[in-house]
# Entry
Amino acid sequence: MILPKKNIISNTIRTQKSLMMVGGSPVFQLYSRLKLTRLFYLIPIGIFMKIAVLVKQIPGSESALPISGNHNWIDEGQVSFVMNPPDNFALEEALLIKERRGDGEVVIVSMGPARVQKVIREGLAKGADWGIYLEEDGPIETDP
# Structure
């Protein structure tokens, strides 16, 4: 049976309103009451979710930052790099969402020199499903 377009639109609006209203509160009021990540649980369970987590490497807090010979950046050969802590928290939260929903994929994305593959492998070891490494062709601008 083909429904008239009018009924489809009204059903869609009704569905959107039911997703927007939780306990009689509009979504914009939910931001102050709930964590932003809790809003992901409003997505119906039947929808497959793919979560992309963008990660980057930063110099470790325990390593010294020696200045390079041209005095415009650090000497990366003498520095140990780690995953950015906020990115690590985002990865952990994405894995928790995936675990609670029981479906979906977590994809780690990072760009940079070859050393960046270390954080992608670290994320895969924590439970991510895929890792995407974007290799840079030439030098990128470094902004301290």
